[in-house]
Amino acid sequence: MNMKHNIFALFVTLTLVGNGVGLKYRVCKLACDEMGLDKCSKLCRTTKGDAFIENSCWKDCSSCAVQSNAATVLREYIQYSNFDQIVSGHDGAEGPVFTKDGTFYMTALHDGQILTVDLQNKLASVFVEPIVGGFVGMPVGLQCDPENNIWVADARLGLLKVTPGGTLRQVATMDINNEISQGFNDLIFDYHGTLWISAPLGPIAPHNLTFSYEDPFGSVYCYNDATEELIKLTTGFLWPNGIAVQHDVDGTPKKLIFGESFNKNAPLWSYDIVGPCQIKNKQLWGNLPVNIISDGMDFDKEGNLIVAGYDGFLHVFGPNGGAPICRIKCPFTEASNVHFKPGTNELYITQDSSQGVWKMQWRAKGMEQYCDLGQI
């Protein structure tokens, strides 16, 4: 009799817990059930009234989404594949990029290295260590051009260009006003071949390294390869960081978008692009949550902008900006940049806390990059 009673009690207990009757799970289970996330419901918890899919849920739902109206939008953004760590231990991991031949590169800015990454075997090796005039570089952002060269935004050396064979040259040290270039962070080609660059550092070497964390001298530059001119377009920002170009349906560059990392309001600014290296009409395009440090960004094929955040989330904005339409929880903090593998929904994420790069499956393919046009 005792045995039967104990078995019955155990059955009841497991049923109650499984159905989320416990205070810890009940609200979350109801939300998960409503969204059809049955596999996740027993492992979820709730935070501030929002459905929050916890790390322990990743075996079934690898990413997490948090927002005020989660019950209506969470299902669309839950990813059903795990984050996969590719490499780690590279100080200041940044600048993920694929070249036209399918090779993946990243930077280790504090190690002064541009790395080649073997994605299949999960190994990284040094491709280039930028040095100019005896000054060691701090490579941050990378972009590929149609000739398979890599363009480098370097915090100490400014704008660099590396050939497929590894030959490096410093492209420009002065702007068109004969002022020394600031140190660079991120960069992006538009579809017309104009290169847009965020510049949160002070003057490049031989000047001492200075930062626009508190003094808003951060700027945005443009390089016109046709005229070989470096142009400072706008200034007055607290660490401009991450940069993207939004295009019209016909491929015409439409908006320049970038973050301001150390502005506590976490803005994403935009300017209308009116020609090569020409902008006007500064506007607030979007906002991350207050006090979140924004970093690198990339568009998907549906026009959504994915922004890496140091809070350990990927903040996803719709084509019109505003507030994030969702946030994807990462298994790490300090996400520093994002980049899609061409023609796929594979999103590669660099991050500082484990000094490496991760891969995840996004719900849409990435937007074409300049070097990919006509190739996908």
TrEMBL record:
Highest taxon, organism lineage: Eukaryota
Family matches, as Gene3D superfamilies: TolB, C-terminal domain
Transmembrane segments: none
Entry-linked InterPro entries: 6-blade_b-propeller_TolB-like, SGL, SMP-30/CGR1_Lactonase
Protein name, as recorded: Uncharacterized protein
SUPFAM superfamilies per record: Calcium-dependent phosphotriesterase
Pfam family, one: SGL
